[in-house]
């Protein structure tokens, strides 16, 4: 991933003291958009880390049963 392209799509908002208070992301910049999507995917995974898991076979059988196969 091109870090220069990512940096071009990031702007900081500062307060009157020059302190960074927020960040603006240019979502028309493909590199930035990919980073944001990765961040959202990571947050989703973190939220679901304690959910019960199921094996592929369990899910496959559930789908087949629901289709009457």
UniProtKB/TrEMBL annotation:
Species of origin: Spirosoma oryzae
Record protein name field: Uncharacterized protein
